[in-house]
Fold this protein.
Amino acid sequence: MNELNILEILRPYKEAYPLAFLAATLTLIASLVFLSFYLRKKLSPKKYVKLKAPPQEVPAALTQPSPVETPSALEPFKKEVEREEKLKVPAELKVPIEETPSETPITSIEEILSPEEKQGALADIEQIYAEEASWLTRLKAGLSKTRLSLQSNLSELFSKKQNIDENLLESIHETLYRSDLGVSTIDKLVDRLRHSLPKTQEISWEDVKNILAAESEKILSTTQSIGATPPSSGPFVILVVGVNGVGKTTTIGKLAAHFLAQKKSVLLCAGDTYRAAAIDQLKVWGDRLGVKVISHQPGSDPAAVAFDAISAAKSRQIDVVLIDTAGRLHNKQHLMDELNKINRVIAKDLPGAPHETFLVIDATTGQNAFMQVKAFKEVVNLSGLCVTKLDGTAKGGVVIGIVDQFKIPVKYIGVGEKSADLHSFEAKEFVASLF
Ligand SMILES: Nc1nc2c(ncn2[C@@H]2O[C@H](COP(=O)(O)OP(=O)(O)OP(=O)(O)O)[C@@H](O)[C@H]2O)c(=O)[nH]1
Ligand SMILES: [Mg+2]
């Protein structure tokens, strides 16, 4: 009714001044269109994000929270929209969030975690940085059982000053034996003492300790290599093997944290399909660190999981793939078949992979660790050892014995169950903490 009335009122003007009437109508429509565009832009600032160019090697997700996480984080962007009215911002610095290309290399923190979980993962990684500085103290604490057992037993022998003789050397041999260094290595160390210590002078525990430390460092350094270094373009594939309970899955979690701290993107592969709990355990690590886990059903073919993990890593440009394997296999033949198949499948999909095969050994098992290295060496091409649980044993000497006997480098050592309790092995540091 109202519209009709307005039209009735306007009719005489329309007939008297048709051109002016048309111009007024067009002006009114243009004003309405302009007003609606202006209001839409003003009321939806969240659509625009100014990208700060991240440092090349540092994925932004690891160093700063996503800008859309908190209300305060939106402030700069609101200002940005206002400033935009006056100043043209170069187009390449501005992208609508919705248009982020899906094939961008993922850090899975971005991909799978809620903002709260993301904050947790970031805090975990920051903690690693913070704890890095105190690593030597923690390594010493971890190896304290081994060190105290060695020192208290050996220094007891030197309660009174004496000259070196075969009886004393025999007692030193016995004490070292209790630290699981292995007989042939102890023979070597004692022989060095025999030839290096002066026969005619009284010697102290300090003299003996210095020679044992120097000789141990020499043994460890001959095969020493620093922790695995991923190439500049990935994926770098690490296969982790070992008998059940030695700490494979935990070491994989700790390795993931180690590589994340180096700003590498990581993918975990649940290749231990033998037990459902093993898959879940790896997923817990994945959630904790914000790392994606590729898994199949329990009982499925581990080689198929490995294949999927490599394919996913290739398409997502992941830097490091860590493959967990089963420790509970029926017999050596079964173990050999399974590991061979995983190796074959990986190598076919990614020539040169796996780039590292780490055998995890548990230092608390002492002499049994020697047997494990021997058995796995016959099955796979081991490139390095990860020695775990050095915090819970007086048998840390096993590391020296194994390196001496098998000439396989120790790559990492674990002195606890937390993500920061793993470190690249360094002979000098290790020996200094042991003696
Ligand atoms: N104290 C200590 N405990 C560790 C360390 N590494 C692993 N563990 C513990 O050892 C136990 C076994 O570790 P897992 O990682 O499950 O061992 P696994 O080799 O994967 O075992 P399976 O999957 O059964 O073959 C867990 O309770 C870990 O928390 C370490 O360096 N120090
Ligand atoms: Mg496991």
